[in-house]
Amino acid sequence: MPDLGKYADTVLSSYIVSIILLVLLVLVSLLAARKARAELEQVEERRRG
Amino acid sequence: MIALLVRDMRLAMRAGGGFGLGLAFFLIVTVLVPFGVGPESGLLAKIAPGILWLGALLACLLSLDRIFALDWEDGSLDLLATSPLPMEGVVSVKALAHWLTTGLPLCLAAPLFGLLLSLPEAGYLWLILSLVIGTPALSVIGTFGAALTVGLKRGGLLLSLLVLPLYVPTLIFGAEVARRGAEGLDTMTPLLMLGGITCGTIALLPFASALVLRVNLR
Amino acid sequence: MGSIWEYANPVKFIRTSEIVLPWVSILATVTLIAGLVWGFFFTPDDYRQGSTVKIIYLHVPSALMAINVWFMMLVTSLIWLIRRHHVSALAAKAAAPVGIIMTVIALVTGAIWGQPMWGTWWAWDPRLTSFLILFLFYLGYIALWEAIDNPDTAADLTSVLCIVGSVFAMLSRYAVNFWNQGLHQGASLSLDKEENVADVFSTPLYVCIAGFVLLFIALVFLRTRTEIHRRRTKALLARERLG
Fold first, then answer.
1. Residue C188 backbone dihedrals phi, psi, to 5 degrees
2. Smallest Cβ distance to B172: which of C157, C161, C179?
3. Rounded distance, CA C158 to CA C80, Å?
4. Is C228 within 8 Å of C90 (Cβ atoms)?
5. Is B63 within the bounds of a domain?
6. Which of C154, C125, C128 is nearest to C142 (CA)?
7. Which residue from B23, B33, B131, B203 has the highest number of Cβ atoms inside 10 Å of its Cβ?
8. C49: nearest CA in chain A?
9. What is the per-residue pLDDT across B167-180, written as a single tens digit (0 to 9) for each?
10. For chain C, percent helix, then strand, then coil, each to nearest 5?
11. Is B99 exposed, middle or buried (CB count within 10 Å of its CB: 0-12, 13-18, 19+)?
């Protein structure tokens, strides 16, 4: 851990907020991708079967 | 074209057309502001140009969804689309009718409401001038927003979300002219910019509105 | 390799992105983590800003992306309107949420940094105000996509909105500049060396920017695929209902 001095809160909070936002964005995108793909496969399955 | 203009204006004037509604809304906003910020006339005089511009802008916004809504419901928009009049012309006439029924009354009423907010004497001329130059842009931009949301059921809220960011430059320069005028400063630069924005939007935006309207009528 | 327009074919796009996506994702993760770790742990403090200078590794890349994502949406919207490639319209739709998150990150990190440095969370400075307006444009764009059922109509309308919005965003930028002179420092990275940040700070910054760009590319690939899958599901279901 580097010595952040008196601005530790400032630096840490901006990193935490940004990383949370990025991770959320990635997670939401991944979940949506998986769901869309599963639905498509289900429909295609039904069509063939 | 003129027939369309006359028809549109008559529709707007009739009850339920919202002709007086914009003005009444403008008045109410102006009356409510002192309740919010306090009755001190120095403060009111300072913020009066901005408040009046903002009030005019919101009053303009209020009647935007009526530009196409009635014609969309009874199908006359489809008729207009197949008429020999180009869509760009229809859109421009609609915007003009909106300005004549909303923008122009607002310009005329603004100095009266300026009295309520103790607008400095030097400001009246500039306020009217900036509104006369600026409100046509508001109508034209608003017509574009109305064309975008014409078929939607809950279009009203979306319309404001789409149109308000587009109003930013007009508001900034318009309110700047009025503010500088009230403080007796040089108003030339913002006035020219405001005029430029109005001319630019009147010249170009009808093409975008017509394109969008054609898509919506497809 | 044929022409670039081949990738506008959804099937071809799905096939290509299938191969490319894992690599871009890995590269993005590695670059982003490397850049941020380098910036956070291994850079000195600035003599004036102290350790808050480390926020630059989030603030500058996200701000750059916020603008460039909109620019990419403008280009893809134009391609959709002119050549009517579905992938192009869907890529614009896929990019918008990424852009709005970038704008939020830029605004939030800026506010957190501004608090100790300028003594205020928010100032109506031209750059800050422009970003707030950009945020509103993203909101309107996404809301319009959500509001319209017919995908082709939605693509057309949002494309026109994106183009008109770009013009007004530029206008707002100049209007805001005129309206208030700012507190914000000049460009962090420009060819003009005078006002640039020092090299110790700029090298990890470049790595972070590369990381953000790669992350954006990976996300757009992923989200565009999602949109294509959704579109196909919808089409198949419609066909099913017809019998």
1. -80, -35
2. C179
3. 10
4. yes
5. yes
6. C154
7. B131
8. A7
9. 999 999 998 888 88
10. 85, 0, 15
11. buried
- The reported pLDDT for the residue numbered C7 is 63
- Could you tell me if residue B2 is inside a domain? no
Spell out the residues 6+ positions from residue B173 whose beta carbon is closer than 8 angstroms to its own: B134, B190, B191, B193, B194, B197, C175, C178
pLDDT at C230 over 80: yes
Chain segment C72-97, per-residue pLDDT in tens: 999 999 999 998 888 889 999 999 99
- Measure the CA angle with vertex C86, ends C149 and C218; round to 5°: 100
Range(s) of the domain holding residue B210: 24-32+42-217
Identity of residue C142: I
Q: Is the dihedral of CA B177, B181, B185, B189 positive or negative?
A: positive
CB atoms within 10 A of CB B192: 13
* C36/C166 Cα distance (integer angstroms): 31
Buried b (16+ CB within 10 A) or exposed e, A16-27: ebbeebbeebbe
The number of distinct structural domains making up chain B is 1
Beta-ladder partners of C50: C46
Domain regions of chain A by residue span? 5-48
Judging contact as 3 or more Cβ pairs under 8 Å, the answer for C and B is: yes
Q: Report the gap between the CA of C231 and the closest CA in chain A (Å).
A: 9
Return all residues near B29 (Cβ < 8 A) that are at least 6 apart.
B51, B54, B55, B58, B59
- Which DSSP symbol is given to C55? G
Q: What is the ipTM of this complex?
A: 0.86
DSSP collapsed to 3 states, C165-217: HHHHHHHHHHHHHHHCCCCCCCCCCCCCHHHCCCHHHHHHHHHHHHHHHHHHH
Output the six-digit token pair for B144.
């574009």
Report if residue B160 sits inside a domain.
yes
Chain C residues in contact with A13 (beta carbon < 8 A): 112
Query: What is the distance between the alpha carbons of residues B172 and B159, in angstroms, rounded to a whole number?
Result: 20
pLDDT digits (tens, 9 = 90+) for B67-113: 887 788 777 888 888 888 888 888 898 899 888 888 888 888 888 88
DSSP-assigned letters across all residues of B54-74 = HHHHHHHHHTTTHHHHHHHHT
Cβ atoms of B151 and B73 within 8 Å: the answer is: no
**Separation between Cα atoms, residue A7 and residue C221, nearest integer Å:** 38
Determine phi and psi for C199, rounding to 5 degrees.
-60, -40
- Residue B92's H or E segment, with its range, is helix B87-98
Q: Does residue A12 sit at the C interface (CB-CB below 8 Å)?
A: no
Confidence class for position A24, pLDDT limits 50, 70, 90 = very high
B3 belongs to a structural domain: no
Q: Phi and psi (nearest 5°) for C46?
A: -80, 145
Distance from CA of C169 to the nearest CA of A (A): 25
